[in-house]
């Protein structure tokens, strides 16, 4: 399911934008999908070293967060979503220093 979600998120990426990318298995699948349209986006902003390395390995330019004013979309996974649609994300285990 995580792979399907990562690839499905690709339909929301607009050409010419900078894409925000999270951390974890769902984000990794999204990065794989994003690699198929690397020539159509300006690049990405990443929330972790692991995601940055994966983006760069696919030839996607990674901007420093301080270099961009806005993102076209941000894609990440969640560890839990409750009945009020409130998300819990990882507890900071993969924070970038």
TrEMBL record:
InterPro entries per UniProt: NagB/RpiA_transferase-like (IPR037171), Ribose5P_isomerase_type_A (IPR004788)
Domain of life per record: Bacteria
EC number: 5.3.1.6
A Gene Ontology cellular-component term: cytosol
Catalytic activity: aldehydo-D-ribose 5-phosphate = D-ribulose 5-phosphate
Gene Ontology MF terms in the entry: ribose-5-phosphate isomerase activity
GO biological process: D-ribose metabolic process; pentose-phosphate shunt, non-oxidative branch
Pfam families, A to Z: Rib_5-P_isom_A (PF06026)
Keywords of the record: Isomerase
First-tier enzyme category under EC: isomerase
PANTHER family on file: RIBOSE-5-PHOSPHATE ISOMERASE (PTHR11934)
Name of this chain's protein: ribose-5-phosphate isomerase
């Amino acid at each position: 399911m995580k792979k399907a979600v990562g690839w499905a998120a690709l339909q929301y990426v607009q050409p010419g934008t900078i894409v925000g990318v999270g951390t974890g298995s769902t984000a990794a699948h999204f990065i794989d999908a994003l690699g198929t349209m690397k020539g159509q986006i300006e690049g990405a902003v990443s929330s972790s070293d692991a995601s940055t390395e994966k983006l760069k390995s696919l030839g996607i330019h990674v901007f420093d967060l301080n270099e961009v004013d806005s993102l076209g979309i941000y894609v990440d996974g969640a560890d839990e979503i409750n009945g009020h649609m409130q998300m819990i994300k990882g507890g900071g285990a993969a924070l970038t220093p």
